[in-house]
Amino acid sequence: MPPGSIQAMLPPPAPSALAAGPSAPIGDDLTAILDKAQDGSDLSEAEVVRLFEARGTEVAAVCNAADALRRAVNGDTVTYVVTRNINYTNVCYFKCQFCAFSKGKLSENLRGKPYDLDIDEITRRALEAWERGGVEVCMQGGIHPEYTGETYLEICRAVKAVTPDMHVHAFSPLEVWQGAKTLGLALPDYLKMLLDAGLGSLPGTAAEVLDDEVRAILCPDKVNTAQWLEVMEAAHTAGLRTTATIMYGHVDRPEHWARHLLRLRTLQKRSGGFTEFVPLPFVAEEAPLYLKGQARRGPTFREAVLMHAVARLALHPHIPSIQTSWVKMGPEGVKACLNAGANDLGGTLMNETITRAAGAAFGQEMPPEAMEQMIRDLDRTPKQRTTLYADVPSVQTDASFGAAELGDVVNTPARKYERRSEPRVLHRPGLDAAD
């Protein structure tokens, strides 16, 4: 198996061990939890942990219950979005212990060349994506020491100028927090500026695991749990929808996963702003924490599939879409997750660099033809969607099939730090007492 895939960590069991066929008898305690979840009642932390602890035939029971809910909520349609990832810089002054993407003098991992895309290259990629049927650009990057909140506004305006109908799905909660801080603005005020500049929605990244016991090891200088949730609630209040993610399988435990899900559920019940939940298994190969011997090598295949199934059960009926990442899971993993509560395949990507930098074997692009074949192989119905799960204009759908090859990308070498004579104040939310 190729390095960096879930399959390399643990070979997938036979499908019947996870979700196919009737489940063997299980205990009354698990049956009661599954019944409660399917009724739409809120599960407790202990009940969610019990689902994660399923073994043997219990795993099939949990997956089957999640799949039944998926069928009731989403039917047999599997959605995906034609999108392009644009990671505009890999320079970052944060030292997240799971990240192999960031480069430069201030990063933990110095391998690879630091880059910082010119605006012209960002807009060229956005326009090329539109011409290939894309309806979304997903833009995120490292926290460059020279970036301010104005940088993100400039990126939004530039993309909307060349592709006015493109949905801009961009900027992690950490980037939003940093942008507001560098301009001395309150979060609501800065989010309104982003909205006015053309931002359409936020990715729910930088979440990792929403428990500060874990974050103290993974990313101590990053936004903490309360700050991540604050950004998301402010975005929802401003009218921006967001996704939600978890990055699991490193130093975390089932109780941390349960708290993460329940914190998302609590916010969703209040704001209704999350469009989907996206589990992202930890890819260890090039991650600093793993290379130091301080993290395990990612989740097992059982844990990865259960994360999708338990999320469906624990978040029902509040978050209706569970996405499985083909970049992280690979084709066989995706098929297992689509039989265990997932209903969405995410984006075609066109380019992907963050996960591949960590050592994953999958990435770059899965064109609509391949997406739809994978879905049809499971006797499901494929459907393109927009970021916000609306129908895609037929002209874009038609353009997405048989699209031309991508042009060569130009990763502009990182800018020198001489643009400012005075030193930049580097905001680290997790370490700054003022926050």
| Overall domain count | 1
CATH structural class:
Alpha Beta
How is the main sheet built?
A: 6 strands, parallel
Low-confidence segments, ≥5 residues, pLDDT <50?
1-17, 101-111, 354-362
Roughly how much helix do the residues carry, as a percent range? 40-55%
And the CATH topology? TIM Barrel
Backbone shape: globular
Figure out the total of helices: 17
What name goes with the CATH superfamily? Answer: Aldolase class I
Q: Which structural class do you get from the secondary structure elements? A: alpha/beta
Strand order of the largest sheet: 2-3-4-5-6-7
Number of strands: 9
Please tell me the overall pLDDT.
Answer: 87
- Gap between N and C termini, in Å? 45 Å
Can you walk through the features of this model?
- Helix 8 (187-197) packs across helix 10 (225-238) and helix 10 (225-238) packs parallel to helix 11.
- 42% of the residues lie in helices and 11% in strands.
- Strand 6, helix 11 and strand 7 form a beta-alpha-beta unit.
- The protein has 17 helices and nine strands.
- It has one domain (68-400): Aldolase class I (TIM Barrel, Alpha-Beta Barrel), CATH 3.20.20.70.
- It has 435 residues and is α/β, with parallel strands linked by helices.
- It has a six-stranded parallel sheet with strand order 2-3-4-5-6-7. A three-stranded parallel sheet has the order 8-1-9.
